[in-house]
């Protein structure tokens, strides 16, 4: 595992600072350091899986917990009614650069269509 791959584990272990939005025993949610929208939160399982497909195969309940956590954050951020986007980048061609699965929660403005470039992360 490279340093970049272990970044989220180091955040979970409090070795790297991050703005934690929500946390429980299985999931941590942090603000993205390079936000692509006014609200940009990463929802991350504490157990490391390489990507969304690996997580779905190994632990569907944990995958569902990421979505539940994202909904709760959207409500607390006041974007649940106006709308938000949930996004996984799965593998390099999709823009995944940290190979510890994480869901992007974006909102707080009109996000338009998916015509722009990929979100890195």
From TrEMBL:
What InterPro entries does the record point to?
Histidine_triad_CS (IPR019808), Histidine_triad_HIT (IPR001310), HIT-like (IPR011146), HIT-like_sf (IPR036265)
Report domain HIT positions. Answer: 7-116
Please tell me which stretches of this chain the record labels as motif Histidine triad motif: 100-104
Q: Which Pfam families match?
A: HIT
Q: What is this protein called?
A: Histidine triad nucleotide-binding protein
């Amino acid at each position: 595992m490279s340093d970049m791959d272990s970044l989220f584990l180091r955040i979970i272990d409090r070795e790297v600072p991050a703005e934690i939005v929500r946390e429980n025993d299985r999931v941590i949610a942090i603000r993205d350091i390079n936000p692509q929208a006014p609200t940009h939160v990463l929802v991350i399982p504490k157990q490391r899986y390489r990507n969304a497909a690996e997580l779905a195969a190994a632990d569907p309940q944990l995958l569902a917990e990421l979505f539940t956590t994202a909904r709760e954050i959207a409500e607390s951020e006041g974007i649940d009614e106006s709308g938000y986007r949930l996004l996984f980048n799965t593998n390099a061609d999709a823009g995944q650069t940290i190979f510890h699965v994480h869901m992007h929660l974006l909102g707080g403005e009109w996000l338009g269509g998916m015509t722009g470039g990929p979100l890195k992360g």
